[in-house]
Write a structure and sequence with these properties.
alpha/beta
């Protein structure tokens, strides 16, 4: 099963992550098969509602009505920045 990575990144790094994710999906190599990046934690948590998780394929409902995650793992990466 594939792995999904959800990251919070500065806007400048956002496009780098998008290119990396597209390249990884083409090669089927790299850290994950699914990348999703947000510029801030606020954007991530306001956007990733339970309904949207289903639309993105991060959760699926089986024919029997059970819910499952179609990945070996889903990582949410948040960089901790130390304010001076």
């Amino acid at each position: 099963m594939p792995k999904a990575i959800i990251e919070i990144q500065a806007q400048a790094r956002f496009f780098q992550a998008a290119r990396r994710g597209a390249a990884a999906m083409q090669r089927r190599k790299g850290d994950a098969d699914f990348y999703l990046s947000y510029p801030s934690a606020r954007d991530l948590y306001s956007d990733l509602t339970p309904a949207r998780l289903g639309l993105l394929g991060l959760v699926e409902q089986t024919e029997a009505g059970a819910w499952r995650v179609p990945f070996n793992g889903v990582e949410i990466r948040v960089a901790m920045v130390h304010a001076a």
